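Hi everyone, sorry if this is the wrong subforum. Our group has a chain we'd like a structural model of before ordering constructs, and none of us has done structure prediction before. Sequence below.
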Amino acid sequence: MAEPETESIGALIGRLVADGKGYAHAELGYYRTLAASKLGEAKLGLIFGAAALVIALCAITALLVGLILALATLIGPGWATLIVIAAALALSALLGWLAYTRIQRLFGSKG
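Answer:
Right subforum, don't worry. Here is the predicted structure as tokens:
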């Protein structure tokens, strides 16, 4: 009866390391492919979202200009611009503060 070949511990460890590297490279390739596939699927959705954001910003700009023009007939263009800009900045500051407090609550220090 023939004895099975025996490998040294060093050879076994070397083979184990090589197999581990091969497995890690295969997993990395799999996740890269998966991410590229998901990004490809999401690309059109991201384009639609960006277009919606641009249109919403245009609508907000038109609203602010309309408010200035409406108020200009009552109090003059300078004061109307100042009031609308101050109100818009106040709303922006409030929303920014709310966002900051939510993010602080999420990532803030715990102690």
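For your construct planning: The radius of gyration is 31 Å. Residues 9-75 form the longest helix (67 residues).
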